[in-house]
Amino acid sequence: MSVEELYQKYPPQETKVHRVDGAPIGPGAPVNSVVPAWLGTWCENVVDPRICISDFGEAWLNTDIPTRDDLHTPVLYLPPETTFAPGALGFPADIWTLACSIHEIMGERRLFEGFCADRDHVISENISTLGPLPQDWWDMWKARGEFFTEDGSWRTDMTRAQSSRSYPLSERIQLFGRKNDPEFSAEEAESLERMLRTMFEYKPEKRATAKDVIKSDWMQRWGIPALRTYSIPVPCESS
Fold this sequence. Notes:
This protein has nine helices and two strands, in the order H-E-E-H-H-H-H-H-H-H-H. It is mostly helical. The chain has a two-stranded antiparallel sheet with strand order 1-2.
């Protein structure tokens, strides 16, 4: 179905935005909102669905050299270099965001979580999941005292909405919604964790490339075979 056919069959339903107190809406709010489309059936009833991931909020061609100092990616998916090395933004940022998305698709929940989270909360989530920051970034992080003591231990008296203990990646993978799925074996979980760790390297120059991800054990044994089941071409597979 083309985009035009989709809009014709499911025309967007707009509704005016109003403030609860009746005051005029500010310039930061949209005039209209769009009601989510109802496609006629629940997702659980869709047979052989083909999922297309699109729009991380910002993109560039692989022939371009990114020059931005910031990204518009949702804060929970932002790589740490946006906080500590904004001049180093490039394609490794996509790999970090992709890893967040893979975990969310596989695990049915976000990897880094937080209610109305800011960047400092997300950095604390990164540390909880992946371990300590590189020393130069740790020394640079002005808000670290809100979460940690001087020796790097979690504060037990923090006022932030954050647990006072770490939840490493291996533990979070075990909390997957698929943990009781017989098709998701311990071997696959370990392989997935190894791949994600290469994608979650703190320093962008050490992070896996797209080709590294394609060649990883998890992609070769589980990811790519799943794509072939639906006859989906695999980019870079032959490179």
